[in-house]
Please model this.
Amino acid sequence: MIPQEIIRRKRDGEALSADEIEDFIAALAEGRLSEGQIGAFAMAVWFKGMDRDEIVALTMAMAHSGEMLSWADIGRPIADKHSTGGVGDNVSLMLAPIAAACGLAVPMISGRGLGHTGGTLDKLESIPGYKVTPDAALFRKVVKEAGCAIIGQTAALAPADGKLYAVRDVTATVDSIPLITASILSKKLAAGLQTLVLDVKVGNGAFMAAPDDAERLAASLVEVANGAGVRTSALITDMNEPLADAVGNAVEIRNCIAFLAGEKTGTRLETVVLAFAAEMLVGAGLASTREEGERQAKAAISSGKAAEIFARMVHMLGGPADLLERPSHYLTVGKFIRPVLAQSGGWLSSCNARDIGMAVIDLGGGRRHPADRINHAVGFTDLLPLGTRVERGDAIGFVHAANDAAADAVAAALQANYRIGDDAPALPAVISKRI
Model:
């Protein structure tokens, strides 16, 4: 296998055979490709695309580049959810323990920040001691005893995807349907799932800004996953504003804890979390309707069982046993705080969620290069949702920064990001379609 020949053929728009794709991915997993070759392959796929057979071959090759997990002894349906990435999207943090509280086993393989979007692993690493890459034995133990475990790709699980994922982040090849499909599903197939639900974001803060593109991605994911034997559905959800009222790492873990304590009812975030919990429970046969699934999810929150499972998972993976009792002790947030003030009275009518995500990177809360270190303390809190009526001088949100200069600069940028109108805006549905 000559890597540059495969790159050339894809660059020229030719369809690659399954053998060629398997050989290229094997070389990638074994470290026989340069970062330049990996980036060139990703860029060729971005420009020329892949047909269904190529995407299936790429997905399967990446899934089989490492260990394939089996959960035959777990005694529960094996289910998971994955998001294509958004801003303030911490759904997985709450959804996994809620689903576990309702009887599912959730071995969730998550990723780091990609482009302007936050990464579940980066958020979890703001918890002191939390092991995002445990060995297989500990991963299995946590899923069996706690009901869920949110971890990253270990060296044993889909290692080819881990290497390709890092290069995509810094080569502007994130928003490729074949690469997104293979990346998401290779991890899920390697994790031994029986059912999967997918959160495909659409809007100015999503990788798929246009509804047609989001629907094509959702259809690709559902088709490939079902073809690989994993019962799969997708919901298309709005990302024209941050989903949670917090954006960052430690601040989103705090937001998760507040959600599990029942403090985020009536929010867009709650709508999405409950919808995905219901989708998971119906898909696994533990609820006969989505309404019943939502009732089960609400009960898991109100009873405290979901919070208890989250706490158990955190502690079993190395985090503090009393995180939920003392979140402010463990989850440090930026001490240089600036309010973002409304410059006029009216209705919050629009914002650019992507720029809000990029502002977190400007604060040091994300990466421009794979080797960059993250400041987990920085970010935004108390962001008001679009459609809120404000008066001049009201706080739209708060910036948490590492120093005065960054706090001032990002607060000004965030202030300019929001548009205030005279009339209440017509906002898109939080969940627009099921595929």
User: Anything to note?
Assistant: Residues 99 and 277 are 6 Å apart (CA to CA). The mean pLDDT is 93.
